[in-house]
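Researcher: We are triaging several targets before committing to wet-lab work. For this one, the compound of interest is fe (ii) ion. I'm pasting the protein sequence and the ligand SMILES. What I need is the predicted three-dimensional arrangement of the protein with the ligand bound, expressed as structure tokens, so it can go straight into our comparison scripts without reformatting.
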Amino acid sequence: MPYTLDQFASDCRSILKGNPGPAGREEVRTRLERLLSEKAFVDEYCGPQAPRGLKVLYEDPELGFQILAHINDKARVSPPHDHGASWAIYGQATHYTDMTEWEREDDGRNPAKAKLKPVKKYRLTPGRAGIYQDGTIHSIDYPDSARFIRVTGTNLDKIRRVRFDLATGDVHQMTPQQAT
Ligand SMILES: [Fe+2]
């Protein structure tokens, strides 16, 4: 039986209702990989005709999680950033995304400055999904035409989050939709 966006959204809802913690998200990650193995889903939402940019495919009215399609034309390297208190799952549809997790090397006492070191790097290829758990500082790097589906614990526009300038060490408050 084909696995659809509606079925995925409904699975996310029941899984996260029962277990909103890391184990529940890991289950959502494996379901996202299943969804991305469906050619019909990838063709419809991430195919050549899909509208460019960021599209909210589903937002849960009760739990607040979102399923988003990122339909990119141009390559991009994001600065390291966090998602505030939210987690995020990235699932690759086309091409690839290089995922990096960072840790702070400073004591975090100065809110305006930070020193980061990379602690984990991996590449998502089509059909694979990865998780950044609560508050993990991360960055993404993808080539032209890379497309992916992202599930976030909440609407990121509504929460405080920061990005880091690696060259200067400056910590910046992020504006809505500024980075992924
Ligand atoms: Fe992100």
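Researcher: Any quick observations?
Model: Helices lie at 5-18, 22-36, 39-46.
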